[in-house]
Design a protein that fits this description.
This protein is α+β, with helices and mostly antiparallel strands. The chain is built from eight helices and 21 strands. Strand 20 and strand 21 form a beta hairpin. The longest helix is centred in the C-terminal third of the chain and has 25 residues. 47% of the residues are buried.
Length: 378
């Protein structure tokens, strides 16, 4: 039901209300945009088994998992707000379960993670795959109500050039992140995507190593083949360059092509998961991940974004992200493992990648006032 007695004109207050009342929504800021967009549902969301089904639903927001046998979440957009300050808005507040889910997961220690890497390297050397992306979870305290209210703003401020989002699907936890990796942008018959691989501390003057260059070549070759297989035409590839995302650099290559309406969902299905978050050969790496990682990735390294938003679809790989649960906050990070990988260095790479989100959380804790804003404030 609508709540005419409750209205909001500041985005953080509205987000806090929607979370506390179990309303699916997503706030995001696309790369290059100065202001965020918030999409709000009518109070419900749907579950799908394929991205083709999602594209048939109309305008909304999608969140897809890494593993294909897990549900794709989608809500149809009922309200659109732009910016962080807007005219008075009265949201819908259905009677929904606003509790965040719990988790019994125990994070990997450094010793157990490096042991996983050692076993993965041995499987690669035996010829099972050329690259496998192995990830882990870093656990921290649950964000308070006041911290949640500032989360999206802090992420936008600290990550000015990447896709920043906060998304709430009741029962799936609250997700937020700052992803540098575009999966697909589609508009007016044109599509674009990016091959992204390699990681180093930003500002380092040294040349990229052979491991990072090979990773980039695998991802680039894979994307080009996917675009051809999906039926894209006039495929154009840029020169590889170095980009900066927070405190890390990556190698990046742009792809542009023409594609009709039926080609776009087919291309998404073929692209996901890319070698950047899975490995190469993809099916072999996919199986090794299933057998090696000790937790469920869920929507980490899946993809998400607005669909059919005034004719535009922008999907991003869910990297540099966190999930807020009932009793804790989980931060996800991983790295590409090859035959040349050093287990200790791979642990350090996940530490480096998680530092962006951990720094944002530290800033939130510093900004939080002594008086909490209740998460279930009605």
């Amino acid at each position: 039901m609508s709540t005419p007695d409750l209205s909001f004109n500041h985005l953080p207050d509205l987000q806090n209300f929607l979370i506390g009342n179990g309303v699916p929504f997503a706030s995001f800021r696309l790369p290059g945009d100065s202001e965020p967009v918030t999409l709000i549902s009518d109070g419900s969301f749907s579950v799908h088994s394929s991205i083709a089904e999602v594209f048939e639903q109309g305008q909304g927001f999608v969140m897809a998992p890494f593993f294909r046998n897990e549900p794709i979440l989608f809500f149809r957009n009922s309200y659109t707000l732009k910016g962080t300050v807007f005219q008075s808005f009265s949201p819908v507040a259905p009677k929904a379960d606003s509790d965040l889910p719990g988790s019994a997961f125990i994070p990997e220690s450094r010793a157990s993670y490096t042991q996983m890497i050692e076993k993965t390297v041995q499987r690669i050397k035996s010829g099972e795959a050329e690259k496998v992306v192995i990830s882990r979870i870093i656990e921290t305290e649950k964000l308070s109500g006041s911290e949640l209210s500032s989360l999206f703003t802090v992420l936008c401020e600290s990550h000015p050039r990447v896709f920043v989002y906060i998304a709430h699907f009741p029962g799936q936890g609250l997700w937020a992140g700052a992803s540098p990796e575009l999966l697909l942008n589609a508009s007016e018959g044109k599509v674009s995507t990016v091959a992204l691989a390699g990681t180093r501390k930003s500002g380092e003057a040294k040349e990229w190593g052979q491991k990072e260059k090979e990773e980039q070549q695998w991802v680039s070759r894979f994307i080009g083949e996917c675009m051809s297989e999906a039926g894209c035409s006039n495929i154009r590839v840029s020169e590889t360059r170095t980009i900066t995302a927070g405190n890390v650099d990556h190698l990046s290559t742009d792809f542009h092509a023409f594609a009709d309406g039926d080609t776009i969902p087919r291309l998404v299905e073929i692209l996901h998961p890319t070698p950047a978050v899975c490995g190469w050969l993809r099916q072999n790496a996919y199986q090794i991940i299933r057998e090696t990682e000790t937790y469920k990735r869920s929507y980490y390294t899946g993809f998400l974004g607005p669909v059919n938003n005034h004719g535009n679809t922008s999907l991003f790989v869910n990297l540099r992200c966190l999930q807020v649960l009932k009793d804790k906050t989980l931060i996800y990070a991983g790295g590409g493992i090859t035959a040349a990988s050093d287990p200790s260095s791979e642990w350090e790479e996940t530490e480096l990648k998680s530092r962006n989100i951990l720094s944002a959380i530290e800033k939130l804790r510093n900004l939080a006032s002594e008086s909490e804003i209740p998460l279930h404030e009605k």
